[in-house]
Amino acid sequence: MLIREAKTVDYPQLREIYLASRRQSFHWVKAEDMDLHDFDQDTQEEQIFLAEENNKILGFISLYVPDRFIHLLFVHPEAAGQGAGDLLLKQAIKVLGTPVTLKCVSDNRNALSFYQKRGWKAVVEEGEPGEKYWVLIYE
């Protein structure tokens, strides 16, 4: 599996992954409120890396480098469990150094478990009811 920086030519596939992943796992958001171009809006000013195998993009991670912050980590539902998420997290830590932070929606139990199994610590839960998220740190 190859991890590399995303190029503009990759964006159509990245948009599809972002939309498909959110529609499958973000049960607290209406599917019709999600759009392909959310990816462009949600990754502005971020460095994006992707996981690719056999010329197919399996997932991506977007980093806000000035704050050592992982903004988005998404793997296509069909590629879940193949190691792309692990490799993308390792790439982020390599690029950002430690400590690194991220936020994870409190209702996203699968994602919280994924991070905690990899040594991330939930520090504080923030947000309004219905929009709560955990701040996690990796040191």
UniProtKB/TrEMBL annotation:
Cross-referenced InterPro entries: Acyl_CoA_acyltransferase, Bact_Acetyltransf, GNAT_dom
The molecular function terms of the Gene Ontology recorded here are: acyltransferase activity, transferring groups other than amino-acyl groups
| Coiled-coil zones | none
- State whether keyword Glycoprotein applies: no
Q: For the N-acetyltransferase domain, which residue ranges apply?
A: 1-139
A Pfam family: Acetyltransf_1
Protein name, as recorded: Acetyltransferase
Can you name the source organism? Bacillus pumilus (strain SAFR-032)
**Organism lineage string:** Bacteria, Bacillati, Bacillota, Bacilli, Bacillales
